[in-house]
Specification:
single chain; about 210 residues; alpha+beta; five-stranded mixed beta sheet; four-stranded antiparallel beta sheet; 4 helices; about 20% helix; globular
Length: about 210
């Protein structure tokens, strides 16, 4: 896991601050309770907003169960608390294989940018081309980072075959927010997105462009 968990690497930079703990370690320590975890089955759609993992909040991680006891954890890592030393921010996706021996891949980072050394750009971000979605075709699963609301970062878990339209809809809403929002239009787009009607989001955004 590199510097994304102090149990894996004690310093982000030698002699610097230590990193924080991953959601996996916090769950094992009892620092994240079951009611702070959103459970999502692969192939279904669910949207939630995750507070930065280093803070105390109602919702801190998403758990996606797989076969044979494996599962994914999705967490929001931001420059706050011990995580202020991290090289990157955004959604971090972890794959947990409880059957693996300690030190032999019990937890692996699903690296958004494998070309960057030491998981330097491992997170998924809506504003980072090439790092906008995590896909597991075998489990019919896509994890898409969304926009921020009240200090929490949105995440959409959906079927892999819906990822393209969902991404485009998420980008349309993010653009509206960047433009200062459009009142009722932005609200309508968000409501359509929460109903997983991604095509309606695109239709509304397209109508706004034509006006």
């Amino acid at each position: 896991m590199g510097a994304w968990d102090i149990m894996s690497q004690h310093f982000v930079v030698q002699g610097g601050l230590p990193p924080g703990l991953s959601s996996f370690t916090k769950i094992r320590l009892g620092w994240i309770q079951a009611d702070q975890v959103v459970f999502v089955e692969p192939g279904t759609s669910a949207m939630t907003f995750l507070a930065p993992l280093s803070k105390k909040a109602k919702t801190l991680t998403v758990k996606i169960p797989l076969s044979w006891g494996d599962y994914y954890l999705v967490e929001n890592r931001q420059h706050a608390g011990y995580d202020r030393a991290l090289s990157d921010t955004g959604l971090l996706v972890l794959k947990v294989s409880p059957r693996a021996d300690e030190g032999y891949g019990t937890v692996k980072i699903m690296d958004a940018a494998p070309s960057a050394r030491h998981f330097a750009n491992a997170t998924y971000r809506l504003d980072a081309p090439g790092r906008e979605v995590f896909v597991d075709e075998g489990n019919r699963l896509a994890v898409i980072p969304l926009w921020e609301e009240e200090g929490s970062l949105g995440v959409l878990i959906t079927a892999a075959d819906k990822k393209a339209t969902a991404q485009e809809a998420a980008r349309a809403i993010s653009k509206l927010i960047a433009q200062g929002g459009q009142g009722r239009l932005l609200q309508d787009c968000k409501e359509a997105f929460r109903a997983y009607d991604f095509r309606k989001v695109l239709q509304l955004a397209s109508e706004q462009k034509g006006n």
